[in-house]
Amino acid sequence: MTALQSPLFRLVRFLLFLLLLGAGSSSAHLVKKGDTLYSIARANGVSVQRLMAVNGIKDPSRLQVGKRLTIPSASSSASTKKVGVKVAQSPSRASKALTIIIDPGHGGRDRGAVWGGVRESDLNLKVAHKLNWYLKRAGYRTVMTRTSDRYVSLSTRAAIANRYRNALFVSIHFNATRETWVRGGETFYASSGRGSYLASSIQRYLVSKCSVRNRGARFRGFSVLRNTHCPAVLVECGFISNASERARCKSNSFQDAAAQAILAGIQRYDRRY
Ligand SMILES: [Zn+2]
Predict the structure, then answer these.
(1) Which of 120, 179, 186, 236 is labelled catalytic?
(2) Catalytic site residue 186?
(3) For residue 67, what is the domain's CATH number?
(4) 4-28: per-residue pLDDT in tens?
(5) Which among 6-10, 94-98, 236-240 has the top mean pLDDT?
(6) Is 46 within the bounds of a domain?
(7) 183 shares its domain with 250
(8) Are 241 and 180 in contact (CB under 8 A)?
(9) How many whole angstroms from 20 Cα to the centroid of ligand 1?
(10) CA of 235 to the centre of ligand 1 (A)
(11) Looking at the DSSP assignment, which residues form a beta bridge with residue 102?
């Protein structure tokens, strides 16, 4: 028997483990495809910082499928502030001058598409809040055209964006059609060059991170895009008129993945321009 296997060592190791958890009870989570630290933290009522600290994770964007995570008890997460763990910055540094205008489509009396009890305006806002969180963590300045369920006109949305000089405008939507078999994600732009590069970057990650059918990055002269001076795109994350896609779009993990996809597209744009 080596010293490492001795009962005393095991006891000490166990006590250290308890200490690390703040003596709280814990459980485990096996990382599945599509999981993010954010979604796991949300589902278990703990903070992302706490989850990272307990599991020794330095880079939250590199979460391996099959990894076994220790989930601290929700109550012990109150000690997060005392631990003082800083959230790791995204590896690619954000351009300090770039402001991202996040535009959750519809809102208030304009609900957008409504199918199976799901309102597009609600989904848009949920993805927008998650995107705002990710962008801020990555070091970007953000502005939201609405932060609650209220009506904002298209001209006001463009006017908000036009207050900022070095900006990107990202309008978030979900799609619907009477042809209920149609599904997939698509990203629109109204200007070639930067706008189309931003659209194709976001579209690329929407397909890879959300596993939606690729309907492409395409030109369309939506007024909210045409009236915005900065590079502007409109992301249709999925079809809520398709029953199976609607079920996915409703889920926290899909909305989280969509936000991460848009973030990744913006970062790709930011590396080029
Ligand atoms: Zn819409």
Answers:
(1) 236
(2) no
(3) 3.10.350.10
(4) 566 766 766 665 554 554 444 578 8
(5) 236-240
(6) yes
(7) yes
(8) yes
(9) 46
(10) 9
(11) 144, 170
